[in-house]
Amino acid sequence: MSELPPTMHAAVIHRHGGPEVLSYEEIPRPEPGPGEALIRVRATSINRLDLWARSGPPVPIFPWTEPDFPIISGSDCAGEVARLGPGVTNVHVGQRVVLYPSIYCGTCDYCRAGEQTQCLEYRIFGEHTDGAMAEYAVVQAHNLLPLPDHVSFTDAAAMPIAYTTAWRMLITAGQLRAGESVLILGVGGGVGSAALRIARRAGATVYATASLPEKRRLAEEHGAAATFDPSAGPISEWVLDQTGGRGVDIVVDPLGATWRESIRSLARGGRLVCCGATAGNQPQFDIREVYQRHRRIIGAPMGNWDDFTQVMRLLFAGEITPIIDSVFPLERIADAHRRAESRASFGKVVITV
Questions:
Q1: Do 327 and 212 lie in a common domain?
Q2: What is the mean pLDDT of the chain?
């Protein structure tokens, strides 16, 4: 690569607020330290972390802490290695890469067992560090996965957070098997649309909820057997009607406030897998509806390195492609946030840099 500029453009958050507080500005370019690499970011994508970095969460959510402004968010990152810090040997300058965004110690019992997201010092790139909503970003070099030339930066950047989380929920934690049935709540979101892709590839029958007719149409176009408007009545009654009174084997619930209906939608021995609380973090339900029917509730907020590499290799092999709603340049970051927050978006909103 040519000589690097001393400054870069970035989307900077100086205070909480609406999309209008996002500032596209020129700031000093960072330098990588020991074990780090400087990435020339080519694409990133918007996750709930980015929206809450800007707005703050709607209610206090464990383990949320107030950030130190200014913030550069962006946990998904695909680009090229621009510079190496001391001691880095696993990648080289100019190499195309995609980032696993979990930051971990590597030495605790959980890390040694391969469960990086359970690390006692667990952090997330783009939430606890400056992220990829910038022309350059400093990352842990050991978290980089080589990106084949035939895979676009746009597709790669849509995958790490949403698809690794969905893989963890369904495959690693939920142990989904071919022939089982899955209910996905909020199928139009990043995790929801990723779960739809992964569940269909695994051979599952998928039922899904979405508030708008266009989202329900798109979910069925991408393989959902049937869809439901959650404002039309109890979700569980619809699921039981669809399944002949049996219920589904797995419910993917990133919403939180919907647990009562999620639990009632499960078959005996079914699994509720959860990764978020975007609609509320204190659901009300009867625990007897869990243990009396041998149901399980499984937390799966993000996958480990193995989950990440498995889902990325499916992308590399052409077996899974991300559902992308729209693509914006970084200078239109405010418009991208508006699209991601709109009820109309379906799939990932990607940012090119």
A1: no
A2: 96
Q: Could you tell me if 209 and 273 lie in one domain?
A: yes
pLDDT confidence of residue 276: 87
* Contact criterion met (CB below 8 Å) for 98 and 145: yes
Beta-carbon contacts of residue 1 (< 8 Å; ≥ 6 apart)? 40, 80, 82, 93, 94
Q: How far apart are CA 255 and CA 259, in angstroms?
A: 8
216 belongs to a structural domain: yes
Asked if pLDDT for residue 1 goes beyond 60, the answer is no
In the chain, the amino acid numbered 11 is: A
146: nearest Cα among 80, 220, 82: 80
Claim to verify: residue 95 and residue 223 sit in the same structural domain: no
Q: Does 242 share its domain with 172?
A: yes
Q: Please give the sequence-ordered ranges of beta strands (E in DSSP) within 19-143, or none if there are none.
A: 22-28, 36-45, 78-84, 96-99, 102-103, 123-124, 136-140
Q: Taking the complete model, does pTM exceed 0.90, yes or no?
A: yes
What domain range includes position 151? 7-158+322-352
Please indicate, yes or no, if residue 1 is contained in any of the structural domains: no
Q: Is residue 305 part of a domain?
A: no
CA–CA distances in Å: residue 10 to residues 125, 130, 132, 164, 256: 16, 10, 9, 26, 33
Helix (H) or strand (E) holding 325: strand 324-329
